[in-house]
Batch of 2 targets.
Target 1
Amino acid sequence: MNDPDDGYPAAGEAAPWSRQLSICTLPDRAGLKVTGEVCLPTYPVWERALEEVPRQRQEGPYWLELSALTFIDVAGATALATTAQSLDDEQRIVLDHPPPALSRLLELFWPELSAIEVATS
Amino acid sequence: MNAMTETEPFVHPALFYRGEQEYLAGTVPFVRAGLDAGEAVAVAVPEANLELIRAALGEQASQVQLLDMTQAGRNPGRIIPRVLRAFADAHPTRRVRIIGEPIWAGRTETEYPACVQHEALINLAFRGREATILCPYDALSLEETVLADALATHPTIIESGTQDTSAAYAPEAVVSRYNQPLKAPGDAPSMPYAQESLPDARHAAARRAAELGLPESRLGDFALAVAELTTNSVVHGGGVGALRIWSEDQYVVCEVRDAGLLTDPLAGRRPASRDQRGGRGLLLVHVLADLVRVHTSPAEGTTIHCYFER
């Protein structure tokens, strides 16, 4: 939580960085770099990006580079888990630097989801 | 056996015990009978009582799932999904037998309404299921009103070795009676939110919780809970709501207030299946928080108080 404001901002006050989600393809491998946060206002962008994952037919796993993903809510984590469950047996999603919220949600609700791996490097 | 147990496979007796001997006499043979019958058996009671049962069971203790209820059931709202249904669902082909002691003498006045509503809702959550859940009540330490409520939340009562039908059984009435209005301290500022300001509300809430002394290790859970409650307001509660944060005793408390009505008494109390798409929001809040209190009414909307220990 690195917002410099003190006290409650008024509803609707701009904090543009917090409500944006941008997703771009990775230059060096199959996958996406995700920047911002996944919550109700940004959920449609996240869902659309995930819809592409099962259609990829790359060699090796599909990478989600998440070091700049600052938050994800349970609906966002559910969309990811549902995507992983829909993959063919040999397909894998690798999470690179997932935010703590995502690791927590996966551990609480999908502890045995083998199609999702977390990069340890 | 009364008429109800002949048609209803779910059995839910309260055990009123006075002292260690009655506790063991009421619980240990119950566990052994379950093991003898090939049932899956779990015991979720406060640590001291867990040790009594563990010692009395001896080697058989290894065949029983033993849980400290003051941890697993610290928030009574998660006992059904994460303790009782979790165990029952893990044994789909066997009858299950569980000792669950969610109410002990140390439960506070703030916790109690959530505890007694939980006891009442067990009946709804387990209707038609092959399960027995025995709930011990410490009749020497608990107040008379607590024991009177237990008569209303359990169809049968076991006391001094005798089992009787409870004439006072009325679980829906208990859920309504403890659906009590919730108040925030007057000086806790209110922050309105709508869909576009959900991230701001969450950030502000986490910042305030940190100022009030919630440790770093709990801030992530706190932010997740705030996100779910405020998102629920936007999606189900009329599109807008108001958030307040304050500290109370050892807790940081978050209040979310909106115009919605919670019509499903088991909302947030069903385990989510692995493949289910929605319905995890309130369940997540119950799992993460140390206590959740809810008030909902057509006239006043829904208020939820969520407690996180500092």
Target 2
Amino acid sequence: MEKIVEMKNIHKQFPYVKAVDGGQFDLYKGEIHSLIGENGAGKSTMMKILYGMYDIDDGEIIINGECVTDKKYTTRDAIAHGIGMVHQEFMLVKEMTVLENIILGSEPTKKRSRNIAIDFEEARRKIQYYIDNYHMAVQLDKKIIHISVGEMQRVEIIKALYRGADILILDEPTAVLTPQESDKLFEILDSMRKNNKTIVFISHKLKEVMKISDRISVMRAGKYITTVKQSETTIPDLAKYMVGREVFLNVQRTPPKAEEVMLEVKDLYVPSERELSKIRGISFTVRKGEVVGVAGVDGNGQSELGEAIAGLRRVEKGQVILDGVDITNKSPLQVRKEGFVHIPEDRNDRGLNGSHTFADNMLAAEIRNHPYSRFGVINQKKIMDEASIRAEKFDIRPRDVSNIAGSLSGGNAQKIVVARELGAPTKKFLLAAQPTRGIDIGNIEGIRRMIDDTKRDGVAVLLISADLDEILSLADRIIVLYEGQITGELVNDDNIDEGELGYLMMGGGRENG
Amino acid sequence: MSVVTILQNVFTYTLVHDMIAASVPIILACMCAVISRQVDIINIAAEGIIMFGCFFGVLVSYFTGSWLLAVLVSMGFGMLISAFMGWVYLKYDVNIFVLGLCINMMGSSGTRFLLQTIFQTSGNFVSEKVIPIPRINFSFLEGNPVLKSLFSGYTVTEWLVIPIVILIWFMLYKSVWGLRLRAVGMSEKAAVTAGIDVDGKKMAALIVSGACAGLAGAHLSLGYSCLFIENMSGGRGFMGMAAMQFGGANPLFAALGCLIFGLSNSVANRLTPYGIPNQFVTMIPYVATILILAGSVISGRIKRNKSESAIRA
């Protein structure tokens, strides 16, 4: 087999971190080569470098025998060398149609118009080839906002192929998919391999990596660790390479006590910009000392449900009752006054004020209360004292709470949010939305433990997560959301059937189709 | 005089001609706003560029005797101003709103300054040496006063507006250039990964929008009238922006919005002689702006609520 890409001794420094420190990677034509590592290990950075999105500080990239780093190497050059990339966060124009998105940047034109006008017919014909060849169903005339996440991913793949990609980089492609959708993706990847396309598969899910790869490279903390053949390694070996120690992500769950209902959601309808994310008539309860997990593929109404409960989104119909008090369409402040605490889904957008100190962030929800302020005058000392206690309790590093929150890594930033919410003295109900998204493994473990501790203290917890493993490790009961409706409810005991969960996440079991 | 007679005198067939004449400068200003909006830039500089366009139109026409050269210079000057804005905005990250504000203030005071320095006069400048943009008269329509009023007597630039609006629509929605331009405006990240030169597209959009505003200015001083008056842009740049909002940055719908402004302007002009206090009459275009904008916001909200609803279909 012929070596088509080689990256040697790559170095890349970002303002606060050395993202890649002596990275290396190579590709043979027609293989699926997985690049694995924890969050922050540098795998995405490494591949963004190959795709020309970042300059490198040092190192060499050779593509098809040509050293491309001799002069400036950009995304345009990468595309010209037949490299395509599907990013973790989709790079699609939401308000445009699937067709427009696919052709954007390399549009076929009508000759008669001196290549000014777009030839939409020719575009359709070209795209149809990829749809047929790889069995990737997409609806060309729908706008991106109206299609599912799985379909968006197929659009991204077609987009890359359409631009003539022979080498396709997929950054954590299964993170947003159900088990069934992932299997479908693997079939597509396999048929692409048969067509002599080369694929880079970035992941930290070892089961999938073992299933699909020919070779596997491991990165840890920006450094290259090793490259092994799939046939010559095992999952435990890979895990050890990846983490450098053995880890157990499954928090020992506290058994729930059957107590009275704390939160009741009755026949709830919530509007949304996306058709598939509209909540259409769901009802459930959360009891004291219980974690209810909301499982489902991203974009099936989880965010809308969370925002509606938190008072951040209008409820059209139905009721949310917290400890006997109707909090439907109440303001977030009023909802909080009823004992509601919230780890919001987007840490940077809603969770933290990046330009404030740790201390101000940690006490932001209580700043109106005595002793933190009196007659509108803030008592900075009391805030600093309490913040320091919480920094210790929630293991925030660095401990100095006068630091600015924006400088923190994902894990520690999230722990500040957790310290604010779980540190609150009076809390009855916790809404934890994607509490460990985008943070490193060590801190994932810590945050999950904190959520379990909160439950043990008798707080009712609603856990919304796209990470099925997280739900399985924390939740006592699981409800599955699909297109804004509940397709099933399962008790999370030793007999739970993950296949059934996946089936429910795909809309199986929904009444009236 | 009764209300009915007044209305009869105001709403005659000649109103159509007046409406179109009053709309054209607004439409050109509106195209400036439309194109910048498509790359997600709120460009408020139209007002200032129009003022420079007005002045340089009169200046060049006065000294060279060529209206065509005057129009081209005004457009060129508009492009120069917006290229400067783009350079400062894209390279040095200066707030585009503040920049627009500066251009507007300079447009008003700079032209007054130039008027005094070059023509040694203030307030306004009229001269027989200023050659206006020619009007096209169809002699075969002479016999029919209605058709003559409807189709005859427009300036070259007034006729040009139709192909200009259609061309801008075509370029935005049917061409490669426009698809990429709109992609930049809707999602910069997606555009970058598609290999599109984002800053280049923003610059291109600004330059084209500057040309439109410059043309609006030249037309205002050489086509709509044949003189220069201080602050003669009279809020047309902002009316154009309002119409852009009303039309959702689509040139065709936005141009329709401009016609409504043109109509209210000409109705206001015709009401002046009937003893209605001048303050009320001059208010009409602005009230129309507020009503149109409020209307488009409310209808947009109703539509959004309906499409987002989880209960209704």
